Amino acid sequence: MSINLSHIQDAYERIKPQIHRTPIMRSREINSLLGCELYFKAENLQKVGAFKARGGCNAVFSMDTESLAKGVITHSSGNHGAALAWAAALRGANCTVVMPENAPQVKKQAVRGYGAKVIECIPTMADRVAAVAEEIQATGSTLVHPYDNEQIIAGQGTVALEALEQLGSFPDIIITPVGSGGLLAGTAIAAHAIAQNSGKTISVIGAEPRGASDAWQGFTSGQRVENQVPKTIADGLRSTLGISNFSIITEQVNDIVLASEQAIVEAMRLVWMRMKIVIEPSAAVAVAAVMENREIFSGKRVAIILSGGNVDLDALPW
Prior knowledge:
By secondary structure, this protein is an alpha/beta fold. It has 2 domains: 5-50 and 150-306, Rossmann fold, CATH 3.40.50; 53-143, Rossmann fold (3-Layer(aba) Sandwich). Helix content is 47%, strand content 15%. The protein has 14 helices and 10 strands. The strands form 2 sheets. It has a 6-stranded mixed β-sheet, sandwiched between helices. The protein has a 4-stranded parallel β-sheet with strand order 5-4-3-6, sandwiched between helices. The N and C termini lie far apart (45 Å). This is Pyridoxal-phosphate dependent enzyme. Its cofactor is pyridoxal 5'-phosphate; Mg(2+); Ca(2+); Mn(2+). InterPro entries: Ser/Thr_deHydtase_PyrdxlP-BS (IPR000634), TrpB-like_PALP (IPR001926), TrpB-like_PALP_sf (IPR036052). Keywords: Magnesium, Pyridoxal phosphate.
């Protein structure tokens, strides 16, 4: 299928009984500091501590019992793995997650805490894929790809669907972090369709670390970057852009902007201090991008998706 707004609306109805309707939060101090009107969609307060609960839940609850019988498997640096493990447990299915050995300990513990089996691997995409293939051959588990999966993308798009419903009036811009691209792709589909149906326009922007800028490079050149060696504190954004997501993003996203490592840490600290909520570095990337690209956001109403709050408290960046 080619994903459209109706798929995202169907996903929302499917997952609504299982997920939190996360709040929209505001900070007068941060608005004053950054010179724009920010509306923070707090997916750090979502089930499993991240928006990925939405995609994982939609994927698992879209499957028939026969497909679930031998369990599900994925690869993930953390939040998608936790989301799939949580959703699989709700349906009484086994779950296996291949994780890079350098994934944060708190994220490995979360995946195991939801009852999933964790297989650690060398932290490259090739090793992740190989470990998944080996396990599928041994067990017959059903692959739920972390980003090249239309049910995942539709589920992630429900963040924007919900946020626009809560806001009531349209923001000028929606900005989300971008790693593998499911959230940004789903957001672009939902936001543009909803705005168009109301005769409005919304600019959809992705935010990416400078040290893991494959999405920005691909968006700029028109050629998807297949391999990168990411160097960023934002562990949730170290993966490369998915094939399906790249296609959607190049067609429907208005821009991708970058954030430095210093700004990511500053943004994370700012949100912790001013808003008294815990966000992880990957979520802070969107805030950092606003800080470092003020000419784009100045004076605008901006919906900003805080993607997650799973932080290793023994390895804080300040």
